[in-house]
Amino acid sequence: MTEAAGACDVIVIGLGPGGEHAADSLAKAGLDVVAIDERLVGGECPYFGCVPSKMMIAAAGTLREARRIPGLAGTSQVQPDWAPVAARIRDEATDDWDDQVAVDRLVAAGATFVRGRGRITGPNEVTVDGRTWVARRGIVLNTGTSPSAPPIEGLAGTPYWTNREIVKATELPASLIVIGGGAIGCELAQVFAAFDAEVHVVEVADRIIALEEPEASAALATAFAEQGIEVHAGASIHRVDHAGDTFTVVLEDRELTAQRLLVAAGRRTNLADLGLEHLGLDPAARVLETDERMRVAPGIWAIGDITGKGAFTHVSMYQADVVIRDLLGVDGPWADYRAVARVTFTAPEVGSVGLTESAARAAGIDVVTATGDLGTRGWLAREPGLIKLVADRSRNVLVGACAIGPSGGEVLSMLATAVHAEIPVPTLAEMHFAYPTYYRATQPVLRALLHG
Ligand SMILES: Cc1cc2nc3c(=O)[nH]c(=O)nc-3n(C[C@H](O)[C@H](O)[C@H](O)COP(=O)(O)OP(=O)(O)OC[C@H]3O[C@@H](n4cnc5c(N)ncnc54)[C@H](O)[C@@H]3O)c2cc1C
Questions:
Q1: What is the 3-state secondary structure (H, E, C) of the chain?
Q2: The ligand 1 atom nearest the CA atom of 36
């Protein structure tokens, strides 16, 4: 039986980074907001994604840096210990996976928080555990994604890890197989290798981080080989077995064994059983099509991973700002995805913005590219890396860029600005570039583009 819980201005279902931001801002602006989440306020990023994984990555980077002392600055003895990493994730990052601080913040902003699974039960109507709310202005969907596993024989039922278990690991495995060589799989593989685990990465595509430029995949594969991480690209996985403390992954030509198995091979959007049919939408949709105001249908907005515009926290927050403006009657700016930035936090770090070379060609752009190394700073620091720029020859502006190396994601900032603002390549090439910085390495590449 359903019980009418009341009317409100806006209902937000799912409080990932964007949903939380939208609920908080709309409530602060004076709207009557009902904010619903079945798990933790803040979503995947603070508890199971970006934050704990980047805390692990910071620790692993410190170990790698200490190991670089011989040959550069003397001698070093490194004794990895996972205990401080696990403790920081539990105590500093996630409050032991407790969202009370976030809930209190939301309530202090003036929102009504409801813990439970929200389901659309009619136009402007949402039901949670038998209680129903009706929204006067509309519903914002931010239900995000969950880890999904490929249909590999034997995998289901084994105690494999996804991102949700690995961030809670209190002990280091001696060995780890990672199924999935995308950003998440590669980041976590490198963390555990830095802590001396034997690591294999199994990827069905013919290269790791296959969505990035081939140059980035090659640079990372070289680093993985130097760090002792075995990459099995182009793999076909026949079966997974688990017995005692051992996983076996059977490939076409060999068997891999390890103490732990991480599956990082894709995510599914949380759209099933959301009641989309009550809005005239396909209940089996994988993503929701949105317009430039993030509207899916009259009175329905969607933000975050479910929109398929880039599964990143910054995209979710960006889209939330668009929705906030639309709901508050502010006139734009509306959503624009030409300069979506993304960073794979490996070593080397891979920062990318806009289109890759192949995506630009597929889009019919008159493409010109140029690449260059990290110049003086790379040589001084003994750090290899690469800058690749993708330009539209006819308009003489950058449409994509990739910065590979230490701080690749930071070097990216100027290139993201250039793509976003369509700064002419000659203007960029004649800027002052501080010597000897990593971003200075972009100048010869920009000049090469002019002659390309
Ligand atoms: C290991 C890992 C590392 C990552 N690293 C980065 C990174 O470095 N940088 C970056 O930008 N991104 C990173 N991401 C991606 C990032 O976490 C997501 O893009 C981000 O969380 C935005 O997701 P979202 O807003 O779509 O919602 P999510 O964060 O997925 O949250 C959705 C929320 O909706 C709730 N929910 C779902 N269905 C319902 C329902 N019916 N009723 C009520 N509540 C519901 C869920 O409980 C959840 O709290 C990483 C992801 C992973 C897994």
A1: CCEEEEEEEEEEECCCHHHHHHHHHHHHCCCCEEEEECCCCCCHHHHHCHHHHHHHHHHHHHHHHHHCCECCCECCCCCCCCHHHHHHHHHHHCCCCCCHHHHHHHHHHCCEEEECCEEEEECCEEEECCEEEEEEEEEEECCCEEECCCCCCCCCCCCCECHHHHCCCCCCCCEEEEECCCHHHHHHHHHHHHCCCEEEEEECCCCCCCCCCHHHHHHHHHHHHHCCCEEEECCCEEEEEEECCEEEEEECCCEEEECEEEECCCEEECCCCCCHHHHCCCCCCCCCCCCCCCEEECCEEECCHHHCCCCCHHHHHHHHHHHHHHHCCCCCCCCCCCCCEEEECCCCEEEEEECCHHHHHHCCCCEEEEEECCHHHHHHHCCCCEEEEEEECCCCEEEEEEEEECCHHHHHHHHHHHHHHCCEHHHHHCCCCCCCCCHHHHHHHHHHHHCC
A2: 43
